[in-house]
Write a structure and sequence with these properties.
heterodimer; A: Fumarate Reductase Cytochrome B subunit; two-stranded antiparallel ribbon; 14 helices; B: mainly alpha; Cytochrome Bc1 Complex, Chain D, domain 2; globular
Chain lengths: ~375, ~150
């Protein structure tokens, strides 16, 4: 490591004066700070970002279980204080520890203290629950991810209702964890944050040693990496499984030609059958223009196509939300509450850009508009003012 | 040096194929357009036995005119197709329209059903009536001259 960097780390995380002992191996420290980064990214994109931040949110959400699996390998087969059996989850021991603090009895723990240990397990469990509920929501809303073939919109939406409360719970737990670190640092006159950076703690006052079990580095790494590999294969396979409830991937050629000459041809999933029937009922007065087809057979064919693929026939976030029309203006997709909510943050001047061509021109920003999917990963607003 | 040679042969082949296709397609377009013009000429003659020929100049003023009774959203043909038919146009919903001028879009006015459909729609919107066969022929003749 370059001397300058070394000096910088020493400034941020000063070593304990006097003799010190190694406590946190690099694996635990790397896990801890990577997890902090991933949770920070997931929280920032989840609480503050919109749909277009979903890709980053998912990346963080994928990294979290990977990190946890690797940590489990180290926890089962790693060295000293990294091992789970050096900090078993025990509510009784945790209560005892709190009692000791209340009674002013100071007992030193080089590794996690029993209360901290319980919090560590609880946080990991809540994190995994957040990942699972998010994965279910992804399946229900966008028909993506490993649950896509068996979780529909209703179930996914219901489970999504747990995702955010769990995230708030995690925020509260992180706050409690930080408070505990601060409290114990003050009580024991040591810098626990620095210890999680350089890994060492002062040898005095003496504390009980870690369980004397031999570390098995190859097994620790192998089991963690193996578990990640197996999970990856399962997730990849399940994410490629066919899903029901998707709108037609490609538009009917005749429909796209006839209804795509004045504006982008809208996927039939963007309106319920009643709206398509009403819209097709008066094409002579179509938003101020004559859009009539002048050929009854053609008209019938397009109407049939729209009705056979309307919002009722799909099972995604878009299809469900597009059923909820504005009673004052049911024909407009852009008048639905959902559309307005999703695009409320986009300034009018962006829609006015020549390359965008107005609100109704979904294709300009949604690369997959014609498939009716509207996946967040396919959103890209054309740049340049003109 | 194998790859570049192969590549150039492929390009040459592709190029000549494309040129062949274009050469084959262009006369087809011209013939189809002539048939459509002949169709309108016959109709114009039937409506007015004194009809002689279509006029590009009349087509031009028809294209640029702002008729009094037009629907407010569509005041003139040039509103969407722009005043220079060699330009790309733009619909009210923001979609670009390929130029009307045949020099720019050789496939224009080559499918009777399409030509009929759009004359019916756009004449209703702008002129609030069906256009006459003479107006339609003038329009196409003007676009062919551009």
């Amino acid at each position: 490591m370059p001397a300058r960097l070394r000096a910088l780390i020493d400034r941020i995380a000063p070593m304990p004066g006097g003799p010190s002992l190694p406590v946190w191996p690099w694996t635990v420290r790397a896990f801890h700070w990577s997890l902090v980064l991933c949770v920070a990214v997931a929280a920032a994109t989840g609480f503050l970002g919109g749909m277009s931040a979903l890709s980053l949110h998912l990346a963080a959400g994928i990294a979290i279980p990977v990190l946890i699996l690797l940590r489990i390998g180290v926890g089962l087969f790693g060295p000293g204080y990294a091992r789970f059996d050096s900090f078993p989850p025990s509510p009784r021991a945790a209560l005892e520890h709190l009692e000791n603090i209340r009674g002013g009895r100071h007992e030193r723990h080089l590794g996690h203290n029993p209360a901290g240990a319980l919090m560590v397990y609880a946080m990991l469990a809540v994190l995994l629950l957040i990942v699972l509920t998010g994965t279910a929501a992804l399946a229900g809303m966008f028909r993506q991810g490993p649950f896509r073939s068996f979780i529909g919109f209703d179930t996914g939406w219901l489970i999504y209702g747990l995702h955010q409360p769990l995230a708030w719970l995690l925020v509260a737990m992180i706050a409690a964890h930080l408070w505990g670190v601060w409290f114990e640092s003050r009580r024991g006159h040591e810098n626990l944050v620095a210890a999680m950076i350089h890994g060492r703690k002062a040898a005095d006052p003496p504390a009980p040693p870690p369980p004397r079990r031999r570390a098995m580095p190859w097994l620790a790494a192998g089991s963690g990496i193996g578990a990640v590999g197996v999970l990856t294969l399962i997730v990849l396979r399940a994410s490629a499984a066919p899903a029901s409830g998707l709108p037609p991937a490609k538009l009917d050629h005749t429909y796209a030609e006839q209804c795509g000459s004045c504006h982008t041809p809208y996927s039939p999933v963007l309106a319920p059958a009643s709206v398509w029937r009403q819209l097709m009922g008066d094409l002579r007065h179509h938003f101020g223009e004559d859009a009539s087809l002048g050929d009854p057979a053609l008209h019938q064919r397009i109407l049939g196509y729209l009705l056979a693929n309307s919002a009722e026939h799909a099972d995604t976030l878009v299809s469900h939300m597009m059923m909820r029309r504005d009673p004052a203006d049911p024909m407009r997709i852009t008048a639905t509450r959902f559309w307005q909510f999703m695009h409320g943050g986009i300034p009018a001047r962006v829609f006015a850009r020549k390359k965008v061509g107005g609100r109704s021109n979904c294709d300009a920003c949604h690369r997959d508009a014609q498939s009716g999917r509207f996946l967040p990963e396919n959103i890209e607003i054309p740049e340049s003012a003109e | 040096m194998k790859l570049p040679i192969r590549l150039s042969v492929t390009l040459l082949l592709a190029g000549s194929l494309a040129a062949g296709a274009a050469a084959a397609a262009t006369p087809d377009f011209a013939a189809a357009r002539a048939a459509i013009l002949a169709h309108y000429a016959a109709a114009a003659h039937k409506a007015d036995p004194n009809f002689k020929a279509f006029s590009a100049a009349a087509g031009r003023s028809f294209f640029l005119a702002h008729p009094a009774g037009a629907r407010p959203a569509t005041p003139s043909c040039s509103y969407c197709h722009t005043t220079d038919p060699r330009n790309q146009g733009r619909t009210r919903a923001g979609k670009t329209i390929l130029p009307m001028a045949i020099s720019r879009t050789p496939s224009r006015f080559t499918k009777l059903s399409k030509v009929r459909l759009w004359f019916r729609r756009n004449c209703q919107s702008v002129y609030r009536r069906a256009c006459t066969a003479q107006e339609k022929g003038n329009y196409i003749t003007f676009m062919a001259s551009q």
